[in-house]
Amino acid sequence: MSVWPAWEVRDGTGATAWFGVRLEFGDGAHVDAVAVVSEGCVSIEDVRAEPALSLDDLAALADWIEDPLSQACGIGVAPDGPGPDGADPDDTGPDGADAGSCLAGSGWPRGVEGQWLVAQKYRAAQEQGTDPVLAVMTATGYGRRKSLRLIGQARDAGFLTRRRARH
Fold it and tell me: Is 51 a residue whose pLDDT tops 70?
């Protein structure tokens, strides 16, 4: 696997950087992706594969590229406890968003614990009158689609109520 910086755009408050990612497999198959790093969070902007990826393989893509991409981008998992500035990353800000840095990839627990935390962030945002999906996106560091999938999993696990009554 190889990761390389493609380009970077700086504005008054920070920078957004794009990285190229290439995975090559022994059978000649390959996956090319473009990852975007902005405000400490990584998202995948484009994926091309030869041969095409199945949905299961596409879902596993994040696991395949997570560690090398995080190292190339200089992004690690948020530390436990207060940061160097004394701010606790587990605190929420006044708008219901996570006051600490985004927890991308392996920083967000998987399974039942992750589903429960997604439900907590979702309900807290609802109670504060803010967008619950945006709150989950901010807390997890994932994009909208992955966050909606996590919310759906939390619903399926019984941590959130169903959106519509099923007849």
Answer: yes
